[in-house]
Every structure is written in structure tokens, then in C-alpha cells.
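[Meeting: bench + compute handoff]

Bench side (C.D.) handed over the final construct sequence. Compute side (W.E.) agreed to return the predicted structure before the next meeting so the bench team could plan truncations. Sequence as handed over:
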Amino acid sequence: MSPKFLRLTLVIAGLACAIPAQAEEMRAPDARRFIAGKHFHYTCFEGTTGNGRIYADGSVAGYIQVGGSGPRRYVVLPAGTLHVRGEQYCASVRGIPFSPCFNVQKTSGVSFRGSVSGLGFAYCEFSRRSARADLQRAPLRLHRMTTASSGGQQ
């Protein structure tokens, strides 16, 4: 998978996770206030899943699993990646020749659907959740310790 596709997918997913829904269309400034600094889990139309946070400066940080299988990747996009242009919430991603904008529909007090403007089929469903729910810890591995006095044997 190309890094450009991964970035665009993360942006779509991040936006979708960050914008509320209830079939109530949200204007960009309202959507931005709703999502800034909150943690969302998302599932996209083609199976991509993940979780992350969109910050007030337009940066994005989170995990993505493209297509819903394979490795989960941690991705960080810089400040200004997501921004308000007129009444739309848009993205600027290096390496992508256009700047996609998004339709955001509030589906509940803690969820929304984000879709690429003009491509209603390309959407992600987002729901707010606790960041702690997504912490993954590596399994604790205990190793035998040897000491000089035991001659390396235990």
C-alpha cells in the first residue's frame, strides 16, 4: 500500500472519527469544535478501522488498520493537515494532488459520519470513546536473571 493512500485514508478516517452525527449536517466550525482533542474509534466503508485524535491545530495522531486486516500502524500528520475552508472541513496531505473536503453528519451526541464531498459512498463512521480503551500493552516477558555468584546457573 502506498504511503499516499495510507495518509489519505487516515485523514478520512480521522475526520470521520472527529465529526459528530445524527443525520444533522454540521458546518466546519461546529464540526471542528465537536472533534478537537477528543478520541474517536472509526470504521470506514471499505473495512478500514482505527482510532485516534484530531487536535485543534489540525494535526492528527492515531492508529489505522487499512482494510481491517494486516498490521495496525501508528500515524501522525502535522499541524494544518485538517483546516476549515469556507464552510467545509478539508485536508492538505503532502503527496496528494488535491485537497479533499468532507461532509460531516452528526448521528448522535458522541458519533458522526464523515464522507468525502462528492463521493458519498466514501465514508467513515466515528464514535467517541475513552483513549484508555485502546491502549495496548506488549505482553510482559520475564527473563531468567543470572548472577555472577551463581556462575550463570539457576
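W.E. noted at the follow-up: The two ends are 48 Å apart (CA to CA). C.D. will use this when planning the next construct.
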